[in-house]
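REQUEST
  id: r-88c1
  op: predict_structure
  target: 3',5'-cyclic-AMP phosphodiesterase
  payload:
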Amino acid sequence: MGCSPSVLLDHIQGESVTANQEKQITKKSAIPYLKKEPTRSVVHRKSSLPLTPEDEPFDAYRTPSESKFGLLLPPNRSPLKLLMVFLQPDAVSDTLSRAADKLGFDVTTSNSYEGTLEEFVSKLHDLIVIDARCPQRILDCDTLCRSIRNTRGSQHTAAVALVKKSAFDKDDVTVTTLLDSGFNRCIVETTNIIHYVNELVQLKQSDIRPLAQYATNQSLYVALEKCNDIVLVTDDSFRLQYANRASERFLGYRYEETLGKTLQEQLIYDPIQLNSMSSSLMRAREWQGPITLRRKGQDAITFTCKATPIISAGRSPTHFAIVIDIHGLSETPSTFDKPRGSVQSLRRTSLDVRSVGSDYLRRTSLAKLSALPLEAPITKVITLLTQAQEQTTPSVVGILDKVIDLLQNSELYSPHLKDDLRLRCDEPVTSDLITALLMQQPQLHTSASSRRSSNDSTTLRSAHRTVSKIRVPTQIKELLETSLTWEFDIFRLEDLTNKKPLTHLGMNLFLHFDVPQTLNCKEKTLFNWLTVIEMNYHMDNSYHNSTHAADVMQATAGFLEKDRLKAIMDPLDEATSLLAACAHDIDHPGKSSAFLSNCDNPLAILYNDSTVLENHHAALTFKLTLGDDRINIFKNLDRETYKIARHNVIDMILATEMTKHFEHLAKFVNVFCPKSTRSDECENSIPITLPENITLVKRMMIKCADVSNPTRPLRLCVEWARRIAEEYFAQTDEEKLRGLPVVMPMFDRITCSIPKSQIGFVDYIVHDMFEAWDAFIDMPELVSYMRQNYIRWKEFDEQGHTTAADIRKLQNNLIMAPMFPSKSTTKRNE
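RESPONSE
  id: r-88c1
  status: 200
  body:
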């Protein structure tokens, strides 16, 4: 159904001309060639214009390569019928007639207004040529063309105006006026028969044939109208462009009531379902699942739905075709409107999300979390329990409420000593022994003074902002003024600092977040610490170097600036998050943990092949920090605060291990918007300030920062992709050279497609995580850049730009533009 909205509308409404109206068109003045009478009524369609290229149907990209256009063949009309309208024969008309005969056209001539209409109505010619050279008072070709266009079936005819040479010799409104009247194009008078032969050949290929195909496509609409299932076609913003008769029959809305309105405001009962559908369709993927639609004057009803993206032009989906199976009906959600017991807050009801108030936008984005395709077993259990609540007694409802609350905890298997055991245990030694044996980590008791409320966040951040005493070159200082923007040019900073960006960016961000004050340490100590940390990154790594660490730190700082995180993060959380981001890949060897295990590296032996690199990064961070008093940024903290800071840093660094990616994401989605919870009560039902939930947020934050490359502007995204591919290529080369198992066989520098690797990475890792993160912190530029880059990677792959050399050439020729104008340039422009 790869067609534009206007085509859909014209097909449906183009049959509205009645027989009486046709009769009115043909009964014109008996005196031809006179001026147009003021009282003459000419019936106009919704649009009297012919089909333009924008209105012609396009075929959808069914595969990465284009499908062939025109699977339904038009009728074989041979010969093609040509109607020539000339006031009187002359050399030009004779030349045109001979050219048409040469090409095998069936030529009919007319020299009057009424005769032209009668001829056209009787034969419905494929092509009509009208002489527009004569004065308007003699032959009003504008009115004649409009009358023809108002004749039923004329939308399948190409109309051409023959004009004088002077019409093209100067900037004149003649051509524009003729096109506005309904002509497809204009041709110039000539007595050269070859010229007219070429003109007619072009008309046949570029106008007559597409119009015939357009007429044939009417059969598709007839089929849709007869289809028992509901068929809807929308544009890329879900604005309805077409609905078949089955939709009117089952939903009760007339076509005119739904046309031009979005599905959400007219039909969709639950906005969360539309979010889920949109997430797949905007990536040019089919979506299938249940959908609940409103029925006019009746209860809503749930159908089985399949939605398909259509790419009519360009690379992004332009339309969505939605087919709703009326045979797969589910239970109507009318029972949702009946509150019972205490589970009302846990059931999804018919809610107008716009009525929530000032928090509408954030709560709507939170609803995206429950629409993600990711679903852990614990989520399924909660969903089943919620369904059981609908069919049980009020006494059981309260018990199930408590069960669901417990299951929504992020640490289901972290044991806690029962309260009754504590009471029965007279001997404190026994209680301490059992607790110590069961706990995996030391219990952290966060003092009240170490946390702050959301009301204090702004005050603490800006009260006594530290002014750096370290001199920074002017160019670096100007660049660092943009350090909190998502478009920050980290590679520019890498160049300016001679591949040592971490120290400069780190000090800038530490001072912004008042880290010296939080850790009670001197600025010089922080600077020394950053210097040592950066020295322990391997400069020869193409990806895992200090530039990557600085990039992750910058992303973390950008996230911390969001209101949602400011409300829950205390100063120590912010400081340790930046420290973890800074050191999360320290001493990375440029090889994966699997490589280290395969070659019996000492680190793999030390950590028993388990989370090798991440354990090493965390351990080395504290070994360096605590081993030298000049860089010990924790030396002035009290013991408990230090233990909290140490726990935070270690936990966040270990969270960057990709083997537990889906576990972290499933916990985050399950806790912060479980599928069983109403979107409008999501915020109130989540104890977000609990320490374990803040830990979940910090884990997700550093994970997103660590793999944020696909969500950066294209120039940065492509450079990061090239660098990580080069590092993987080097590992594959060494594995082959040493006879080790090849961890990533596809990353062969000769055969690997870098665009395909990025497309797969976004599909399976990045997309769902950043949809969830954006829904939580409300940062839409993340998803926007991700989708734009995803489309560009597909384009690069289709164009054959696959190798590292190809990507380098693309960078040089296409996308290596400066991210920010320099200050001097800005001042000159001002």
